């Protein structure tokens, strides 16, 4: 997988490149907005990581310019933590928004989810023996129906769309509950443990894997 | 120095302008008066001349030249006329009958070479004055080669004009003097006010931030200006105080976690024996770092909110729905940590505000209740209206907080006596207070007897755009 990283902080860039390479990613690094835009429009990448504040060309402008030509998934890295900043960033055509400082696993998880996003039009989602009917709002595991509360349903839906990929607590908060701040309680853990209990009620294989230091992963082999 | 400042004062300049305008107006008025008076006097002279000419002509027609000469001599000889008021030595009426050959038949002028028509005759004063004597007169043909000239001295007109001009001079002088005095007086008063403001500003610049401009109590524009400046200074010093408070709080409260972090790293360096020890120490150090970062994030949030720019994007928020969502969101974790959560939410209530911030507000209050109460405490979410206001509250039946503590709860970094060891950075309720203030809502912390009640009272929004968005 090829990534384009536009980031003017050399040290951050170096450490990110090293860690992405460990994960088997190829990373092209551009230290300013103008070179970043050229690389983004001329090259072929699976995802683009854009710093909001770049020399030469602002991150927001870069994303707008890239969007005129390409649909490559884009994630912002930024120190601009205001609500307006996030909204403006997404309106400009970015797909996700990560505030500095962040854990590398968070960035990695988001890029993986972004790159292989399932077609949203599908009316049925599968993961191994788990099947979700989005129209009838029904979930079954090995043909046995599973009763879920609305927010458990939304949580499972998000996990299903990202089956076999780790999702972080923050990603769950943002995408399932639309919460963009950090709760200081283990809310997500409690929700996951309830969902887990329902999914595993008649089954001895735990479908939801806890990924240490990152979050959770719904396993296809269940 | 003071004089030049007064001269520079705007009010003085205005007074000078008014003086000039007033003088100009007076000049126009005087000019008009002069023109009218001169016209009237001239008409008087002309009609007197005409009457004399008519009398002479009548005499000539009735009884011939002799009679005409007689009439002329009679008129010039009349003592009333000869004793003309201003120039005792000179008559003010002049007549002459002369023929074409240059002989004067009668009259008190030498030969004037009279040709019919109106003309002004200038002749040197008999006394040798440097202005010539001016006669306004008319020449009439008497028949044959004879002509009659009747003229009158215009000195009276001249004197009238002189008197009017004199009067004007005095008026102008008075106007100027009055304008200058008024200008000086107003200028001094104006400068006194400017000086008061300037002195206060200079003292504030010099560091006396509590100095204020004294009000004169007249409620005039000066008082209004002074009050506005004073209010501005109040606001600035409140902000500054807040800033100073925050910076010292930040410095103070960062020291504790940073010291902890430092100790941890030091211990790891000195006492770790293997990779697992190091890994554990690094893991803990990362947690400490995250806590510090979340503290910064919260501080940044508070200052962004206090800046008040979010108000522009306010929209109706369905509060009933929002609280129901939060209830569903926190229900599992509340059960897991042994603090049953319940709700009593009136449907269809909305307020004008920022959805995300309101979410954070109530989320913080709920988390506060979860963190700072003993296991088994019941937490209730309520939404209703009281006294015409929309009131959303989170109450618990825990041990509650003392009145004294309740006052301090919304301060930055304040943590209740029981919560020093609990998670959190002491910023939760400050953020709540900031968000409530942004929404013009009142944050009420009260004794729920037992327990603590945190209520947010919103002023109901005007109905039009809330109608369709509730429920």
Provide an overview of this structure:
With 222 residues, chain A is of the alpha/beta class. Chain A has two domains: 2-118, Rossmann fold; 124-218, Winged helix-like DNA-binding domain superfamily/Winged helix DNA-binding domain (Arc Repressor Mutant, subunit A). Chain A is 39% helix and 22% strand. Chain A is built from eight helices and twelve strands. Chain A has a five-stranded parallel beta sheet, sandwiched between helices. The model of chain A has no long low-confidence stretch (mean pLDDT 90). Chain B has 471 residues and is of the alpha+beta class. Chain B contains eleven helices and twelve strands. Chain B has helices at 2-8, 10-63, 65-77, 79-82, 155-205, 221-271, 275-307, 319-336, 355-371, 403-408, 428-438, and strands spanning 93-99, 104-107, 117-123, 133-143, 146-153, 315-318, 341-345, 350-353, 379-386, 389-396, 442-447, 452-458. In chain B, the strands form three sheets. In chain B, strands 2-1-5-4-3 form a five-stranded antiparallel beta sheet. In chain B, strands 7-9-10-12-11 form a five-stranded mixed beta sheet. In chain B, strands 6-8 form a two-stranded antiparallel ribbon. In chain B, strand 9 and strand 10 (389-396) form a beta hairpin. In chain B, helix 2 packs antiparallel against helix 5, helix 7 (275-307) packs parallel to helix 11 and helix 9 (355-371) runs antiparallel to helix 11 (428-438). The longest helix of chain B is centred in the first third of the chain and has 54 residues, at 10-63. Chain B starts with a helix and ends in a 13-residue tail after the last strand. Classes of the chains: A alpha/beta (222), B alpha+beta (471). Chain A binds chain B through residues 81-84, 99, 101, 149-151, 177, 179-187, 189-191, 193-194, and chain B through 293-294, 297, 300-301, 304, 309-310, 313, 325, 328-330, 332-333, 335-337, 354, 356-357, 359-360, 363, 367, 370-371, 423-424, 428.
């Amino acid at each position: 997988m090829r990534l384009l990283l536009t980031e003017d902080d050399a040290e951050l860039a170096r450490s990110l490149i090293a860690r992405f390479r460990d994960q088997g990613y190829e990373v092209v690094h551009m230290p300013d907005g103008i070179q970043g835009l050229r690389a983004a429009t001329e090259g072929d990448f699976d995802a683009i990581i854009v710093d909001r504040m770049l020399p030469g060309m602002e991150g927001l402008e870069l994303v707008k310019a890239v969007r005129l030509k390409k649909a490559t998934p884009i994630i912002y890295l930024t120190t601009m933590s205001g609500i307006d900043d996030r909204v403006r960033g997404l309106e400009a055509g970015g797909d996700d928004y990560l505030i500095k400082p962040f854990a590398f696993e968070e960035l990695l998880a988001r890029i993986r989810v972004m790159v292989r996003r399932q077609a949203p039009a599908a009316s049925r989602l599968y993961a191994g023996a788990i099947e979700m009917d989005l129209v009838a709002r029904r979930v079954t595991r090995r043909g046995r129906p599973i009763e879920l509360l609305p927010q458990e349903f939304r949580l499972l839906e998000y996990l299903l769309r990202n089956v076999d990929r780790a999702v972080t607590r923050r990603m769950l908060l943002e995408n399932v509950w639309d919460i963009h701040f950090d709760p200081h309680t283990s809310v997500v853990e409690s929700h996951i443990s309830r969902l887990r209990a329902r999914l595993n009620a008649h089954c001895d294989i735990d479908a939801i894997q806890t990924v240490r230091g990152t979050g959770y992963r719904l396993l296809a082999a269940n | 120095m003071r004089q030049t400042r007064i001269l520079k004062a705007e009010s003085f300049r205005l007074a000078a302008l008014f003086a000039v305008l007033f003088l100009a107006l007076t000049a126009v008025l005087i000019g008009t008066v002069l023109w009218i008076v001169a016209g009237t006097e001239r008409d008087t002279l002309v009609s007197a001349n005409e009457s004399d000419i008519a009398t002479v002509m009548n005499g000539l027609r009735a009884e011939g030249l002799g009679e005409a000469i007689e009439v002329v001599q009679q008129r010039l000889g009349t003592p009333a006329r000869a004793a003309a008021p201003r120039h005792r030595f000179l008559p003010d009426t002049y007549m002459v009958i002369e023929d074409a050959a240059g002989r004067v038949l009668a009259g008190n002028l030498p030969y004037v070479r009279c040709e019919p028509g109106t003309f002004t005759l200038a002749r040197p004063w008999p006394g040798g004055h440097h202005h010539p004597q001016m006669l306004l007169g008319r020449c009439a043909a008497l028949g044959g080669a004879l002509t009659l000239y009747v003229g009158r001295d215009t000195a009276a007109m001249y004197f009238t004009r002189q008197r009017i001009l004199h009067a004007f001079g005095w008026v102008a002088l008075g106007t100027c003097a009055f304008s200058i005095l008024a200008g000086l007086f107003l200028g001094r008063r104006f400068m006194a006010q400017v000086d008061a403001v300037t002195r206060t500003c200079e003292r504030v610049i010099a560091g006396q931030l509590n100095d204020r401009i004294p009000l004169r109590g007249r409620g005039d524009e000066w008082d209004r200006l002074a009050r506005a400046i004073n209010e501005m200074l109040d606001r600035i010093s409140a902000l500054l105080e807040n800033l100073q408070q925050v910076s010292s709080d930040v410095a103070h409260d960062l020291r504790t976690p940073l010291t902890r972090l430092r100790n941890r790293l030091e211990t790891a360096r000195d006492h770790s024996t293997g990779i697992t020890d190091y890994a554990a120490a690094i893991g803990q150090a990362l947690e400490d770092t995250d806590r510090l970062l979340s503290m910064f994030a919260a501080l940044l949030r508070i200052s962004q909110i206090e800046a008040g720019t979010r108000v522009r994007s306010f929209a109706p928020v369905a509060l009933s729905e929002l609280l129901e969502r939060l209830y569903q969101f926190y229900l599992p974790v509340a059960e897991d940590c042994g603090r049953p959560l319940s709700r009593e939410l009136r449907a269809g209530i909305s307020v004008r505000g920022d959805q995300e911030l309101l979410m954070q507000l109530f989320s913080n209050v709920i988390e506060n209740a979860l963190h700072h109460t003993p296991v088994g405490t019941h937490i209730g979410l309520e939404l209703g209206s009281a006294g015409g206001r929309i009131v959303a509250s989170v109450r618990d039946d825990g041990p509650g907080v003392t009145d004294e503590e309740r006052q301090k709860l919304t301060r930055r970094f304040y943590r209740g006596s029981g919560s020093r060891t609990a998670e959190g950075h002491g910023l939760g309720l400050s953020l709540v207070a900031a968000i409530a203030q942004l929404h013009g809502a009142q944050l009420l912390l009260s004794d729920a007897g037992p327990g603590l009640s945190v209520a947010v009272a919103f002023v109901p929004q005007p109905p039009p755009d809330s109608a369709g968005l509730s429920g």
